[in-house]
Amino acid sequence: MWGNSSSLLNFKASLENPSAALSSWNPSSPSPCSWVGVTCRFGKALESLLLASNRFSGQIPREIQDCPMLKQLSFGNNLLTGSIPKELCGSGALENIDLSVNFLSGGIDEVFVGCTNLQQLALTNNQINGSIPEYLSNLPLMALDLDSNNFTGEIPVSLWNSTNLMEFSASYNRLGGYLPAEIGNAVSLKRLVLSDNQLRGEIPREVGKLTSLSFLNLNSNKLQGKIPRELGDCTSLTTLDLGKNNLQGQIPDRITALAQLQCLVLSYNNLSGSIPSKPSAYFHQTDMPDLSFLQHHGIFDLSHNRLTGPIPEELGDCVVVVEILLSNNHLSGQIPVSLWNSTNLMEFSASYNRLGGYLPPEIGNAVSLKRLVLSDNQLRGEIPREVGKLTSLSFLNLNSNELRGEIPTELGDSPWDIRSLPQLSLRRNPPEIGKLSNLSDLDLSDNSLSGEIPPEIGKLSNLSDLYMGMNKLSGRIPPEIGDVSLLKNFIAPSCFFRGPLPDEISRLKHLAKLDLSYNPLNCPIPKSIGELHNLTMLNLVSTELNGLIPREIGECKSLKTLMLSFNDLSGGLPLELSEIPLLSFSAEKNRLSGRLPSWIGKWKELESLLLSSNRFSGEIPHEIQFCPVLKHLSLANNLLTGLIPRELCGSGALEDIDLSVNFLSGGIEEVFVGCANLQQLALTNNEINGSIPEYLSNLMALDLDSNNFTGEIPLSLWNSTNLMEFSASYNRLGGYLPPEIGNAVSLKRLVLSDNQLRGEIPREVGKLTSLSFLNLNSNELRGEIPTELGDCTSLTTLDLGKNNLQGEIPVKITALAQLQCLVLSHNNLSGSIPSKPSAYFHQTEMPDLSFLQHRGIFDLSHNGLIGPIPEELGGCVVVVEILLSNNRLSGEIPSSLSRLTNLTNLDLSGNSLTGSIPQELGHSPKLQGLNLASNHLNGPIPKSFGLLGSLVKLNLSKNKLDGSLPASLGNLKELTHMDLSFNKLSGELPSELSKMLNLVGIYIQQNRFSGSVETLFCSSLAWKVETVNFSVNLLTGSLPRSLGNLSYLTNLDLHQNHFTGEIPSELGSLMQLELFDVSENNISGDIPTQICGLASLRFLNLAKNRLQGEVPSEGVCNDPSKAMFSGNKALCGRVIGLDCKSDEKTLLSAWGLSGIVIGSMIIVLAAVFSLRRYVTRRRVNDPEESFVDDQNLYFLSGSRSREPLSINVAMFEQPLLKVSLADIVEGTDQPTGPDFKESEGGNLVGWVVQKINRGRAVDVLDPLVVTAGFKQSMLRVLQIAVHCIAATPASRPSMLDVLKSLKEI
C-alpha cells in the first residue's frame, strides 16, 4: 500500500537517484506526508506526487495504481525510460499527469483509458509513437500536450468534437491527413499548436467558428490553398502562425480587423498580391486581457513570399509591432516614413526586394531599433547622418544596393562612445560610423561607396566583423585599423585600396579572416602579418602583390587557407611555410620560381595545392606522397621536367591532378595506379609517350591532349561508366573506334581530333545519350556517318571534319535539338544538304554550355555536296557562321538566310550558285564576312549591302555580276577587304567609297569600270589601304597626285586601263610600295627618279605607255629583272641600251638594231623568268594561294604581312580580325624604347633603317610637326638620307647628287 512509508521506500529503491532528492525519505520519519514531493490530503491520503527535474532514471513503477486518491502526478524532466504502464490509471482519480521530457517510448493506445477524471495530460519530448487514440476525446481533457514525439497517422475526428478541450499541442510529430470541417466544433479551444507535422490539404473555413481561439500555430506543414477569410472571425486571436506551408493567394483583408492580434507569421509560403493597406486594428492594442498564450509579442512576418506593391503607410501605425520581417518578396516603392517613427520597432528586415528611393533623415527616430536589414534592394543616395541616433542598433545590413557617397565620420551630433562595436561590414560607407556604440554587425558591401576609410574606424574597439567589399573605396587602409583590437573578420575585396598595408594591422590579435582580394595594393606582403597568430584565412588574390613571400608568414600558426594567386610574386617558397598547418594553398599565376621544395611533404593536413602558371622547374618532388589528405593538386603551366614520380599517389587521397603545359616526359604505365580516389587527370601539353594504360578506366575526366601517346585506346576506357570527359587530341593514337564505345554511357565530352584513327565510326556511338561534345576532326576515318548519331540527343557540338567520310549527311542529325555546332568539312560527302524541317540550331537557351566552344558554326565546306541550299536553313536562329564553300551546290541563294540575326560569316564560294544576290542579305546586322566568290551569280550588287555596318570582308569575285557599284557601299566603315574582281561591273567608281577609312585591300580588276578616280582618293591622307588593284578596266584621266598620301600602300596595280598624263612625283613618297604596275595605259612624260629610288619597290612595270626621256639608272629601274619599260618608244638611257646623248638622226645599222632587239628580249625574258620562279615558290609554300591569277601577283618582304591583289576564296576560313595598322602605330615606343635597343647596331641609324625595312617609315616622323602639306617632302628627305648611309660607298650619292635631289623637293 502507498499509504504507508514502507511502500514509498520501496518506490525510492526502484529508482536511481543521482541527485539524492529523496534523501528525506527515511523510515525514521513519523509520516511520509512530510517527504519531498509528497502531498497528502487531510494529512493521510496521498494526493499528489511531484518529482520533476530530479534526473531520476528507471521505469515508472506499476504500483502507482495502489494510490486511490492520487490526483496529480509529475515525473517531468527526468531520465525515465520504457513504456508507460497501463496500471497508471488503476484508481481512476488522476486529474493531472506530466511525464514530459523523458525517454519514454511505446504507444498510448490503452494507457489512459482508465483515467476517467483526467483533465491535463503532458507527454512532451519523449519517444512515444503510434497514433493518437480515439478514447482521449471521451476523457474530460482540457489540455493535451503531445509535442516532440513520434506520433503518426491522422488526428481523430472525435477530438475536434470535444467541447472541453482548451489546449491541444502536438507539434514536432509526423501527423498527417487533413484538418476536417469538424475542427469548428472545438469551440472551447484557446490554443492549437500543430506545427512541424505533415498535415496537408486546405485550412477549413470552419476554423472561423473558434471565437475563443487565442493561439493558432500550423507552421511547417504541407498545407495549401488560400488563407480562409473566416479567420477574421477568430476575434480572440493574439497569435496566428501559418508559416512554412504552400499557401497561395492574397492575404485576407479581414485579418487586419483582429484587434487583439499581436503576432502574425505568414512567411515561407507562395502568397501573392499586396500587403493589406486598409486602416487596421491589429497590432494596436497595448493592454491585453490575456497574454498567457502570447509567446512572441509584436512579430509581423510576411517574409519569403511573392508579395508585390509598396509597404503600406498604415504599418507604421501598428504601435505594438516589435519586428517587421518582409524579406524575400517583390515589394517595391519607398519605405514609408511612418515606419521610422515607430518607437517600439526593434527589428526591420526587408532584404531581397525591389525597394528604392532614399533613406530619409527620419530613420533616426526609430530609437529602439536593434536590427536593420535592407540588403539586396535598389536604395540609392547617401546614408543619412541621422543613423547615428540609433544608439541601440546592433546589426545593420545595407549591402547590395546603389548607395553612394563617402563613409561618414560622425554619425549624429551626440558624443557617443563607440568602443563596443563588435561587427562592421561596409558594403557602403556611412560617415559618422563611430557613434553607433552598440553596433555588432554592419554590412554595407556591394554598393558604390567612394572615398577612403576614415581614421575614426579605429574607435570601434569592440568591432568583430568588418565588411566593405565591392565598392569604389580607395586610398590606403588607415593605420587606425590596428585599434579595432577585437576584429575577427576583415572582408574588403574588389575595391580600389592601395598599398602598402599598415604595419598596425599586426595589432589585430583576434583577426581570423583577412580578405583584400582584387584590390590594386601593388606592394609586397608586409612582414608584420606574421604577428597575426589567430589568422585562419588570408586572401590576397589579384592584388598586384610583388616581391617575395615573407618568411614571417610562417609565424601564423593557425593559418589554414592561404590564397596568393594572380599576382607578381617572385622567388621561391620559403621554408617557414612548412610550419603552417595549411589546408589550402594557392599561388597560381605568379612568377614564383626554383624547384618545388621537398618539405611540401610536411603539410600533413593539406587538401589543396594550386601552383599553376608559375616558373617552377625541375622534377616533381617525391615527398608529395607524405601529404596524406591531399585531394587537389595543380602544377600546370610551369617548367617542370623529368618523369612523373610513381610516389605521387602514395597517400591515395588525390581526387584531381593537373600537370598540364610542362615538359614532363616518359610514360604513365604505373604512375597513377595508387590514386584510388582519382577523378580528374589533366596531362595536356607535355612530352609524355607510350600507350594509355588500362587502369585509368575509373576516372571521371581524362585530358591527354598534345602529347606523344601512341597505340590504341584501351577497351577498358570505353567500358567505364564513370568517364564523363575524355580528351586526347594532338597525339599519335591509332587503331579503330570499337563497338564498346557505346558502353561509356556517362560520356559528355569526347575529343580525339588530330590523331591517326582509322576505320568507320561505330554505330554504337548512338548509345551515348549524354554526349554533349564530339570531336573526331583530322583523323583517317572513312565510311558513312552513322545514322545512329541522331540518337545522341544531348549533342551540342559535332565535329567530324578533315576525314575521309563518304555518303550522305544523315537526316536524323537535323533532329538534334541541342546541336549548336556542326563541322563536316574536308570530307568526301555527297548528296544534298538535309532540307526537312529541322530542330538543330534552334534552341536559344541551352541547359549546359560547359562544353560548347564554337556556338553557331554550320560548316559543310570542301565536300561534294550538290543541290540547292535549303530554305529551312534560314530557320536555324542560333547559326553564327555558315560555311558551304567548295562544294557543287546549285540554285539560288535563299533569301531566308537574312532571318539569321546572329549570322556573322557567310561563305558560299566555290560552288555553282546562280541567280541574283538577294536584297534581303543586306539586312543581316551582325554580318562581318560575306564570301560569294567563284559562282555564277548575275545581276547588280544589292544597294542594301550598304546597311551591313559590321561587315569586315566582302568577296564577290569571279561571278557574272553587272551594273554599277552602289554608292551605299561607302557606308561600310568597318570594311577592310573588298574584292569585286572578275565580274562585268561597269560605270564610274562612286566617290563615297573614300569614306571607307579602314579599307586595307580593294580589288576591282577585270571589270568594265570607267571614268576618273580623282575624287575616289580625295580622303587618301586618312586611308590605311595597302593594296589597290584597278587593273583591266576602262578607267580614264590622270593618275591622282593624292595617291602619294597612301603611306601604307604596298601594291598598286592600274595596268590595262586608259590613264593619261604623267606619273605623279608624289608617288615617290610611298616608302612601303613594293609593286607598281601602270603598264598598257597612255601615260606620258618622264619617269620620276623618286619612283626608282623607293627602297622597298621590288617590281615596276611601266611597259606599253608613251613615256619619254632617260630611264633613271638607280634603284629598281637599274634591275632588268624587276623593272619593265618595253613599248615606250621615246624612252632612252643606259638601262634599255639607248644612248640619250646622240644628236645624230641617222638610222641604226641592221646589226645595231638587232643588238637592241636581242638585248631587250633578254631583259624581258629575265624578268619573266624571275616572276615565274617567284610565283612557283609562292605556290609551293602556300598551296591555298595557287589559284590566284598571275596578274594578281604580289611581292612581299618577310617583315610584315601583306595583302594579295585579290582576296582568295579561303579567306573566311580563319577568324575575322579588325586590327588596323593605326592601332599598331599608336602603340609604338619612342626611339629609346625596346625597338631601339633591339635595332641593328643598337643606335639611332639602325632604328631608322629597321623602321623603313619593316614598312613603318612614317613612324620616324615627328607627329607634332607632320602635316598633309609637308608629309611627302619629309618622307622624300628621309629617302635621300637612307641613300647616304648605304652599306657600300659605291652606292652612296655624291654631294652634287644630294644637292640636286634636295632642289627637286
TrEMBL record:
Example of a GO cellular component annotation carried by this entry: membrane
Instruction: Name the Gene3D superfamilies for this protein.
Output: Ribonuclease Inhibitor, Transferase(Phosphotransferase) domain 1
Name this polypeptide is given: non-specific serine/threonine protein kinase
Q: Which organism is it from?
A: Brassica carinata (Ethiopian mustard)
Single GO MF descriptor: ATP binding
Membrane spanning stretches: 1148-1169
Quick check: keyword Nucleus in the entry? no
Q: EC no.?
A: 2.7.11.1
What UniProt keywords are attached to this protein's entry? ATP-binding, Glycoprotein, Kinase, Leucine-rich repeat, Membrane, Nucleotide-binding, Repeat, Serine/threonine-protein kinase, Signal, Transferase, Transmembrane, Transmembrane helix
Q: Name one Pfam family in it.
A: LRR_1
Topology in the lipid bilayer: Single-pass type I membrane protein
Q: What is its main location?
A: membrane
**Is the Kinase keyword given for this protein?**
yes
Q: Which family does the record assign?
A: Belongs to the RLP family.
Q: Subcellular localization, per the record? A: Membrane
Q: Can you give the residue ranges of the Leucine-rich repeat-containing N-terminal plant-type domain?
A: 7-40
